[in-house]
């Protein structure tokens, strides 16, 4: 192996970027159903979250992204909203919500609400009126088409959660469109009155003092149904610009859009500052790298570090001068990161710390998903009746009907089902993992007696302490918040390596993604004597061109000339 010089271009002068509070903040996602249950009904709630604000303040996060807590029949755990201005009774009341906003604010933590406006619940008052009569003003708040010949649906589009994307309504003799389940009819963004209702509702929440919005599948709102263009349709950006003008302008809030279709070609259309749309997007190219190209998420392919790095670095490059990145490896729709990308057995603690180092040393706003800060793992359910997620259950039915063996499906679900991230937060080794005194709505992970907050925080080398340190580094060091990213060793299938640079400061980040010792050969101009910012093993100061890394070791070293 020969060591090479790095050929990184000299960092170009960046145009001036206005600094906002969220540039140095770390987000924390709460899935309320599974976070903390204060009243023993087996379902997490807002009072439970308030009781745990100390944990989040210790971690140092700047804001919480709260998955939906609105009134909902909970077909999709709250991503089916029946009243945007009411709280689901099992989660609490509007007064609880106001208390959460103010108690979090007292600790320097903002609340970012989940804005789910591609669709509502079929039990929303708008849809109830819409399905009764073609003449109701709300009828046009949804997307209707006449039946095709013989009464068939207008086209053969399938819904994400299985089955056709069209459902027939007898009363109005029409089909309505639902990209997700029939319980989630798509809203018709072409209707200006509907858009005005959404803007009004957003202002209502901002008046309550929230810190921003995470916008669920926002890339779908500009769809052109007749052309069968769903993602990033022709009206997406005009609608986002209108929303910015009507609601967001002049507010020091953060907006994060979710988009499964965004690409490096379209990324800056959402988040370049001068376009006045969103601050950043959750994009999934690094996640899709782990999916089977034809068979999708329930037939995952082995993890490929080279593709994963390519995807992450491409977005680091894209947002070098404009736009901003939302950094994440896990959320409520994805598996637990230690299980998916590293090792959740013998090397779990170092794996968790390594993945955290990699993500939190990149440029962007990082998100920690509940339980990630203690290295929670996938659920490993053995039977389909242990699963609760409608996507997993519907796809099970569908794939069994197509001849897939149940064990084969369960193996895929064990790796990639959304329920892996939805088992209750593991607070302690007691009953219900300290999540609930009752029977949790979904089984607690069987490893809760070994993996829990109390256990992790009693360990001086804890995963929690590692995260807390990373969160602080971003707040304190300009090079971490704003430095440019320069990939190193892009072809290595074992090591992720990169540098961050700002002015005279340079940070070198190295991570071993394997359970083996790895010899690493670094470009000479990356080496030298520096200050160890963070490390999972022994502190590294002197970096030589040839070094050896322990299994799942990670570190970052600061050089300042
Ligand atoms: O993970 C997914 C891709 O197969 C989908 O399950 C998921 O629906 C997609 O990521 C969009 O997610 C968002 O919108 C859905 C909701 O079920 C997810 O929880 C939400 O994050 C519909 O509102």
Summarize the structure.
The protein is an alpha/beta fold and 561 residues long. It has helices at 46-51, 53-59, 94-106, 125-130, 192-207, 236-248, 267-271, 285-288, 305-318, 337-341, 348-360, 390-401, 406-416, 453-457, 463-476, 478-482, and strands at residues 27-30, 63-66, 70-71, 83-87, 110-115, 144-145, 166-169, 174-177, 212-215, 254-258, 280-282, 326-327, 365-369, 484-488, 495-502, 505-512, 518-521, 528-529, 531-535, 542-543, 546-549, 554-560. The structure holds 6-O-alpha-D-glucopyranosyl-D-fructose (ISL).
Description:
Helix content is 27%, strand content 17%. The protein is α/β, with parallel strands linked by helices. It folds into two domains: 22-121 and 192-383 and 418-466, Glycosidases (TIM Barrel); 125-177, Oligo-1,6-glucosidase, domain 2, CATH 3.90.400. The protein has an eight-stranded parallel beta sheet with strand order 11-10-9-5-2-1-13-12. A five-stranded antiparallel beta sheet has the order 14-15-16-22-19. A three-stranded antiparallel beta sheet has the order 6-8-7, with no helix packed on it. Helix 11 packs parallel to helix 15 (463-476) and helix 12 (390-401) runs antiparallel to helix 13. Mean pLDDT is 95; it is low at 1-12. Bound molecules: 6-O-alpha-D-glucopyranosyl-D-fructose.
Tell me the CATH superfamily of the largest domain.
Answer: Glycosidases
The biggest beta sheet reads: 8 strands, parallel
Please, what is the average pLDDT?
Answer: 95
Sheet-strand content, in percent, reads: 15-25%
Provide the CATH topology of the largest domain.
TIM Barrel
Number of beta-strand segments: 22
Helical region count?
16
Structural class from helices and strands? alpha/beta
Bound molecules: 6-O-alpha-D-glucopyranosyl-D-fructose
State the low-pLDDT regions, or none.
1-12
Distance between the termini: 29 Å
Shape: globular
Oligomer: single chain
């Amino acid at each position: 192996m020969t060591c090479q010089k790095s050929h990184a271009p000299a960092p170009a002068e960046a145009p001036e970027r206005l600094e906002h509070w969220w540039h140095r903040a770390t987000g924390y996602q709460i899935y309320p159903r599974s976070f903390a249950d204060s009243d023993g009904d087996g379902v997490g709630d807002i009072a439970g979250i308030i009781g745990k604000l100390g944990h989040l303040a210790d971690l140092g996060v700047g804001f919480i992204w709260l998955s939906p807590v609105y009134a909902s029949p909970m077909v999709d755990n709250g991503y089916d909203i029946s009243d945007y201005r009411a709280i689901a009774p099992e989660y609490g009341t509007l007064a609880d919500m106001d208390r959460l906003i103010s108690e979090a604010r007292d600790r320097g933590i903002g609340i970012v609400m989940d804005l789910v406006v591609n669709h509502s619940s079929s039990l929303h008052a708008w849809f109830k009126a819409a399905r009764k009569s073609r003449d109701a003003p709300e009828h046009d708040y949804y997307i209707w088409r006449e039946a095709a010949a013989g009464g068939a649906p207008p086209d053969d589009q399938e819904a994400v959660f299985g089955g056709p994307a069209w459902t027939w309504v007898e009363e109005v003799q029409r089909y309505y469109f639902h990209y997700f389940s029939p319980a989630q009819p798509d809203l018709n963004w072409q209707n200006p009155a509907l858009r005005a209702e959404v803007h009004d509702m957003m202002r209502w929440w901002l008046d309550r003092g929230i810190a921003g919005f995470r916008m669920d599948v926002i890339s779908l709102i500009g769809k052109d149904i007749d052309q069968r263009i769903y993602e990033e349709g022709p009206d997406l950006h005009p609608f986002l610009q209108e929303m910015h003008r009507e609601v967001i302008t002049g507010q020091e809030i953060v907006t994060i859009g979710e988009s499964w279709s965004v690409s490096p070609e379209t990324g800056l259309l959402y988040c370049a500052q001068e376009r006045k749309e969103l601050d950043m997007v959750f994009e999934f190219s690094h996640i899709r790298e782990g999916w089977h190209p034809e068979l999708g998420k329930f037939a995952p392919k082995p993890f490929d570090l080279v593709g994963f790095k390519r995807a992450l670095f491409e977005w680091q490059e894209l947002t070098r001068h404009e736009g901003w990145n939302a950094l994440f490896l896990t959320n409520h729709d994805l598996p637990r990161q230690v299980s998916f990308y590293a090792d959740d057995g013998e090397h779990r603690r170092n794996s968790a710390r390594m993945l955290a180092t990699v993500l939190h040393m990149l440029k962007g706003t990082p998100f920690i998903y509940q339980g990630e800060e203690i290295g929670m793992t996938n659920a490993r359910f053995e039977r389909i009746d242990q699963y609760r997620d409608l996507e997993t259950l519907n796809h099970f039915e569908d794939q069994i009907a197509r001849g897939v063996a149940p064990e084969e499906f369960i193996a895929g679900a064990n790796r990639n089902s959304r329920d892996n991230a939805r088992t209750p937060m593991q607070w302690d080794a007691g009953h219900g993992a300290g999540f609930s005194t009752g029977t949790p709505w979904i089984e607690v992970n069987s490893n809760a007696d070994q993996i829990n907050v109390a256990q992790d925080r009693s360990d001086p080398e804890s995963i929690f302490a590692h995260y807390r340190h990373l969160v602080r580094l971003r707040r304190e060091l300009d090079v971490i918040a704003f430095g440019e990213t320069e990939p190193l060793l892009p072809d290595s299938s074992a090591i992720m390596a990169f540098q961050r640079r700002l002015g005279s400061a340079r940070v070198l980040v190295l991570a071993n993604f394997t359970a083996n010792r790895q010899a690493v050969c670094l470009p000479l101009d990356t080496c030298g004597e520096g200050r160890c910012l963070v490390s999972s093993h022994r502190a590294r100061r002197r970096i030589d061109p040839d070094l050896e890394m322990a299994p799942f070791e990670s570190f970052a070293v600061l050089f300042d000339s």
